[in-house]
Amino acid sequence: MDKLLIEGGHRLQGEAEMSGAKNAALPILCAALLTREPLTLTNVPQLNDIGTMLKLLAQMGVAVQRDGSVVTLDASGLNNPLAPYEMVKTMRASILVLGPLVARCGEAKVSLPGGCAIGARPVDQHIKGLTAMGADIAVEHGYVVARTSRLRGARLFTDMVTVTGTENLMMAAVLAEGETVIENAAREPEVVDLANCLVSMGARISGAGSDVIRIQGVERLHGATHRIMPDRIETGTYLCAAAATGGEIRLTGTSAAYLDAVVDKLMDAGCDIRTEKSPSFEAIVLRAPQRLKAVSIRTAPYPAFPTDMQAQFMALNALAEGTSIIRETIFENRFMHAVELARLGADIRIDGNTAVVQGVAQLDGATVMATDLRASAGLIIAGLVARGETVIERIYHLDRGYERIEQKLTALGATVRRLS
Ligand code: EPZ
């Protein structure tokens, strides 16, 4: 298994270009299932999760063409509405094929994703919504088996805000008969990017980005070309890495528009952040102080502070001046990076979904283990500032969500090497 070796103590400075958003690309790839015409996507990040999703679609009969960050999908030959356990267990976002398959084929057999390191992550809201739209759904032998003649529009209410739940139900609704209203919908920018892509394919959607999304079903969708939005979590991660090292960086190909909560917290911590905008260009520039001030955070659905940035901020707070409180309200087990940070010398006390972080003056390099995608990012940030060498094990987690991370960090002045 690959490991990452980081030599701490180098200020990050210079420029890096951000990639397309993993969590926008994953549902949008599944949107190709909704039409017999080709869907071309640009700015698709080259990540393991994207590769997994393309393999999953290909074994269903979807023709996949990929040239770097351009992907063309043709689902006219879709003949196998099945998502097998062997593939779904490696990526829970595979559940995003359920809604489109039921809408397009009237049937689907999708393995339950199973839990993952950060929590049980059930899909009961996805099933509840599809059932309300007229699908007959059985959960048997670890699979969700769905069948319907044609979905009909319904008024849906999710018990909690669910990002992929909202995305699945929106994709199911675009071909349903009549109007569907999704209440308590997720407002994440990735949901809006999916809605924009669906509308470019002929769907009739209003309210995406708010907590009430209205969809008027249509007979069929046509092909389109869509550019994936920038990855706001990758962007936030590099801003945190520069902030931790007292650095100064400029991130291009991205926008601060979807990161208000993160930018506010970085400014509270003492960073100077500004955006450069022109009709065809946007960049974010961050200049960090010598030492950050501790900032308390509480994760919540968009537009509040994103849970996917929590581990990165725990690493920042580990070295900041003062004490901070971190409240994780989305997932029940998303503090596993805390014990790994403690191996580097961090002073963190966990009490349920609350972490109390006492900033220390210095971290010392050690061998640590990545447990999930964003925890890996938090450990990298800590390794960039710890004294001496830090080795991060199980970095396959990292490769799922960060494109060419060693190259981008090295270009910014870090000393990072992959050990096979
Ligand atoms: C999406 O996961 C993201 N993944 C996650 O990013 C992100 O952390 C999460 O949203 C929250 O923002 C993708 O978009 C592919 P949820 P998702 O459904 O949709 C509970 C990353 O690192 N819930 O919004 O699976 C659930 O257990 C990943 O890129 C139910 O109980 O998250 C959780 O506690 C990690 N029943 C809460 O809701 C359901 O049917 C929010 O989950 C659905 C969700």
What's the β-strand tally? Answer: 24
Mean residue pLDDT: 96
Q: Are there runs of 5+ residues with pLDDT below 50, and where?
A: none
Number of helices: 14
Sheet with the most strands: spatial strand order:
22-23-1-24
Strand content: 25-35%
CA-based shape: globular
Secondary-structure content class: alpha/beta
Radius of gyration: 21 Å
Bound molecules: ligand EPZ
Secondary structure: helix percent: 25-40%
What composes the largest sheet?
A: 4 strands, mixed
Q: What is the distance, rounded to the nearest whole angstrom, between the alpha carbons of the first and last residues?
A: 6 Å
Q: Can you walk through the features of this model?
A:
31% of the residues lie in helices and 26% in strands. The mean pLDDT is 96. A hairpin with a 2-residue loop joins strand 8 and strand 9. The N and C termini lie close together (6 Å). With 420 residues, the protein is α/β, with parallel strands linked by helices. It binds ligand EPZ. Residues 22-23, 26, 93, 119, 121-126, 160, 162-165, 307-308, 330-331, 373-374, 401 line the site of ligand EPZ.
